[in-house]
Amino acid sequence: MCVLLKGESDARILCPMLIFKNKASSYPMQNLPDKISGVSYRTSPSAFINGRLMCEWLREPRCWGPGGPFASSRVLWMDNASGHCGDGVEDTARELGTKVKLFPANATDKVQPADRFPIQRIKEHWRRLAEQRNREAIRNGDWKTGASSSGKLANPGKMFFLKLAAECIRLVNLEKDKNGDNWAKKAMVQCGIDVRRDGVWKIGQLSRELQQVVAAYPEAFEEGYKQGATRASIYNNKTRHSV
Known about the structure:
By secondary structure, the protein is of the alpha/beta class. It has one domain (about 1-240). Helix content is about 40%, strand content about 15%. The chain contains 10 helices and 7 strands. This is DDE-1 domain-containing protein.
């Protein structure tokens, strides 16, 4: 599942994109219209994003929220996975007024906003709702049939997972702290690619881990800070759920 976080005053998790496993990369899949509100999907042989899907994702207006990528010039921060890179991806982003910037390698746990809070909360809701569906299926006797069933529950189908993804994002976006900040805002502030409500970027807003990095390498931090690292307004992270 590809998840996009948007920062600034209307920070939130935007419409996710699920990637289903399909040897022929068929889209749309038979009997699976891509019309569910709050989610979109594509397919690939591995169920992971690749350069082709990345270009399609950049052109998917539902993933970018109202107005799409044509609304304004944007900066998109991503990890340096191979599926995010390539001339085709950069060319497509450039056409859409989007500057792609990659996080440093081996820094996922420290600088990727979605990995700090949002993904964890998405997984928690996903697990709870999936278990709720399983309990209902058991009560209804909805078991898999056939020689290979082995007492397993029937597969709810891809439509269920599309609706589940949309509901998980909706629920996570509703959760806010005492200051009224949601998980997307909190995560982006702590990773340093957004600012608090006062509009001022401060070292003290960073997570404890990043503050320790700054303290350990003050000269490198000052040099990078002076170079005026571009402040991001949107961010993408991908995580995969088996469906």
